[in-house]
Amino acid sequence: MSLKRRVLFSTSWSSDNIDIEVNGGFLMSFYIKLFFKKWALLELKGSKYKVTVYLKEELSEQKVKFSLFNYSRDNNDKIITTSINKIDLFRAAIRSFYKFFDKNASVVGLSELYMSIIRKSIVEPIEYINYTNGWRLIHATVFKLENQIFIVSAGSKVGKSTLVSKLRNEVNCNVLSDNYCFIKDNMVRTIEEPIRGGEASKYKISFYGRTINGYPDSFEGEIDYFILMKRGNKNQLTNLDFKDLNLFVNQTNNTEREGVFYLNKSDSISVKNCDINFRGKYILKELEVAEGIDNIESSINLIKNI
User: Fold this and answer.
1) Cα–Cα–Cα angle for 6, 7, 10, rounded to 5 degrees
2) What are the domain boundaries of the chain?
3) Cross-strand bridge partners of residue 230
4) Count of other CB atoms within 10 angstroms of residue 145
5) Beta strands across the sheet bearing 210-214
6) What is the DSSP letter of 262?
7) What is the mean pLDDT of the chain?
8) Would you say residue 204 has pLDDT above 70?
9) Which of 49, 185, 244, 285 has its CA 20 to 30 A from that of 81?
10) What is the mean pLDDT of residues 69-86?
11) In terms of CATH architecture, what is 136-304?
12) What is the tens place of the pLDDT at every residue in 263-277?
């Protein structure tokens, strides 16, 4: 395989790191640097785990087809290699041109295409490596408020993204992830995926209909509070038990259907789905939020007063 345009990155936590090697593809390297500014460029620490990406190379006959690209994958012990090929750049570029004139257009342009490729070829292998070490991915926001680590999990259209946007305006709040995280016992990990908020703009970096407005560092630390966020008739914060937590998180994951449990069965990092069964020392709460932006503000006050 050709090693032209070999670019090295690394994502790391306090107790581990994963090396990333991208071979070929100017646009791939460009979008990695655009979306994942905090991935350490050329600062590899020598990890036992490695994720490798090739552009326009076919690894095996086991190909998986998407609308704008195909991929194949090899999983060799601690090295996961993904090949991306048959990328439909022309169609994505035409859609990006259309989006410039209609910022609310729901189409997959170049930004969405390459975020999808990065998630497929790098983020999914990172999830698999974490899974083999006991970590489970969940859809949740992670933030640090008054030196306490909070996880907020919610279903679609509940207001989690709006909550993140409001939290970023809080003086003593540091948003660490707005989309997903990894959990193991009392610990949480995040990766450096950009935070999005607000409507897409012609003149700002955006993907999937929202503008990028933050680039968090990777984080690993102990969880203090785990909050389930739901829509209701009033704003209130109540106690929760682990049985309800596990039920809610499993239902949310099965609805979103992202990650190694929902890959094509021919994918070498596909994992048989199994329910999450969390147990930890963190405090559980259920946050009920009524409709309306003002109620998101009220919910933040509830969280701050825990």
Assistant:
1) 135
2) 6-132, 136-304
3) 288
4) 19
5) 195-199, 210-214, 206-207
6) G
7) 85
8) no
9) 185
10) 90
11) 3-Layer(aba) Sandwich (3.40)
12) 988 899 999 888 888
Q: Which long-range contacts (CB under 8 A, 24 or more apart) does 275-280 make?
A: 275/246, 275/250, 276/136, 276/138, 276/246, 276/249, 276/250, 277/246, 278/183, 278/226, 278/242, 278/245, 278/246, 278/249, 279/185, 279/242, 280/185, 280/186, 280/223, 280/226
pLDDT, tens only, 152-192? 998 877 778 788 778 877 767 899 998 889 999 999 999 99
Q: Is the pLDDT of residue 25 over 90?
A: no
| Residues 287 and 237 sit within 8 Å (Cβ to Cβ) | yes
Q: How far apart are CA 269 and CA 260, in angstroms?
A: 7
Distance separating alpha carbons of residues 166 and 280, to the nearest angstrom: 28
Is there a contact between 284 and 241 (Cβ–Cβ < 8 Å)? yes
Q: Which two tokens stand for residue 16?
A: 């581990």
- Reference 47, options 80, 82, 16; nearest CA is 16
H or E, element range at 170: none
Longest Cα–Cα distance in the chain: 59
pLDDT band of residue 20 (cuts 50, 70, 90) is very high
Tokens representing residue 209 in the block: 């209909």
Residue 29 has phi, psi (to 5 degrees) of -65, -40
Handedness of CA 33, 39, 41, 42 (dihedral sign): negative
**CA 281 – CA 125 distance, rounded (Å):** 29
Rg (CA), the chain: 20
User: Which residue stretches of the chain are H helix?
Assistant: 26-35, 89-101, 110-118, 124-132, 160-167, 242-256, 293-304
The helix/strand/coil state of 12 is strand
Confidence of residue 151 (pLDDT cuts 50, 70, 90): very high
CA 176 to mean position of chain CA atoms: 11
Is the per-residue pLDDT at 21 higher than 70?
A: yes
